[in-house]
Amino acid sequence: MSRRFTVLAALAVLCAGAELVAGRGMSPAVVWDVLGGGGDTTEQHILLQLRLPRLLVALGAGACLGVAGLVLQSALRNPLAGPEVTGVTPGAVLGAVSATGLGLAGWESPLAVVVAACVGGCAGAALLWLLAGRGRSDPAQTAVHGVLVSAVLGGLTAMVLLVAPGELGSVVQWLVGTTEGRVWQHWHLLWPWALAWGAGAWLLAGPLTLLRCGDDTALTVGLSVRRARTLALLCAVALTAGAVAAVGALGFVGLLVPHLAVAVFGADLRVTLPGAALVGAVVVCGADAAAQLSSRLLAVALDSGRFTLPVGALTACLGAALLLVVVRRAPNRTF
What we know:
This protein is an all-alpha fold. The chain has helices at residues 2-22, 28-35, 41-76, 88-101, 110-132, 139-163, 165-168, 172-176, 184-203, 205-212, 215-220, 225-247, 253-265, 269-301, 311-329. It has 15 helices and no strands.
């Protein structure tokens, strides 16, 4: 198991290095020179004030989404549960966008956006919980209701954007999910939030393992199922809201990373939860590096001075393809 963590950590370092050199304007030799203390003022500013915080935010957001997805799938005993299809991500997006449109928060104030996103994420999860009713333990019914809730919340977000286009027009790229323009303020806000709620999720590893075995088994050993599930959902919503407020709605990361983590680290959540954080960080960081490199190649191919491919668009496309593979290989999978 330690060897697997070592391999993933090495892969994370490799993806981090690729992201630092994948952007425009600086060759790998210049990046290495700046990291060694050289380079001019402009090169130092680009690397240390723009690329480095962007890298750290991508790692932190990926870790948050990976842990949140695994917590949701374990608490609900549903392999199709994830922030994207349980109303959490679209609810967080709606909360942040609505607060901005009403003037209660601004994108220059990440803390206010996190609070608004957390409130929206809780509201989205509560709406799904109410609609699912007695069928909330059925993976198929929960997935269907989750798609409906996400569609409704997405429509409300579009309505807000139409009502206040002047204020919210620049948020469209953020709705897709992007790490562009992230600075140290975003990182300083994200890492304590992620660390606190991630630690809380890890402390729930025992109750979550019992919930994966079924409510009857958990009740037999004396676990308060409702309390444990509520705390788990709170952790998942908070982690998702923090990631959404930092990088926007990255599609399919929280849904598929838990499957990869369980495949690599097994069903012991004391090990798999940290593993999911590491896998999520690798996935988002690697996708961001690929998105930056693709943007450079597309800009040359299209003869465009500036072409930006948001990382959320890449994760959505790749995630949808991987989801089809997972569903086709294990159509009846349940916990």
